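Incident log, structure service

09:12 report received: a user says their structure output differs between two submissions of the same chain.
09:20 pulled the input from the user's history:
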Amino acid sequence: MSTAVSAPPRGELRLRIAERAGRSVASRQFHEGALRVLRPHYLDQSGQVCYVMVNPGGAYLGADLFLVEVEVEDGAELLLTTQSATKIYRTPESFAEQRMTLRLGEGARLELVPDQLIAYREASYRQVSHISLRPTSSLVMAEVITPGWSPDGAAFRYEELRLRNEIRVETDHGSKLLALDNLLIRPPLGDVTGMGFMEGYSHLGSLIVVDPRVNQELADQLDRAARDYEACSGVSLTISVAGTTGLVMRSLSNSTRELNELLGACTALLRKRWHGQEPLNLRKY
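09:34 re-ran on a clean worker, output below:
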């Protein structure tokens, strides 16, 4: 297993979004090293701004550290995605790591929909996200984890993936923990598909939703939507904190496309139901 190596960040990105006359704009933007964002664009007339994160280096390597800090101020709306898949290559010196801090104000909205995370042979990666939001904030996070493949079709065998999301609700009386979502994938003998581990599946999809409108009815609706796909899915609710509730859906499959379509259907349902928006069409490919 890789061990930690102290090193300066290879890439750093800070982005603050504010609402101005019914439109969301960047009030602060900073990048250094191998992280940056493309020019903002607007997918519809809602005022929600879309930013695309870019890693010009193309991949994460051993001992790489990336820092991302995003703040969405009161009433602002941000859609944050990536230009392409995040690729984790061999990490012989130490695990690669991304640390993300997300802060949402009152009535703020963040959709975080990166392209898939691909872990190749002998890769070790950690992703730690600290998320703080207000009771009226709205958060949607969708992510797909995919193992890399060799030219002969055999699966590469990565060492370890750790994804940790700590979500806290900020009120006038202090901060309360809503959810601690800790995902660890450490394939036994390098085989991620082992029975009793991922039950023969190789790909994993994850959807996290936090919003005061989250309830059992919505969980049931997403569960019904997931049944239209071959992926094996499950939905669970968090406790309610200060009037807001979280929802987590996990899906197992052998196909990146299937999971992307499934998560896309779920986010489309939320966009239509809550905001009257069309499904996402980022036109990357």
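09:41 both user submissions now match this output. Likely a transient worker issue. Closing.
09:42 reviewer note: The mean pLDDT is 91. Residues 256-275 form the longest helix (20 residues).
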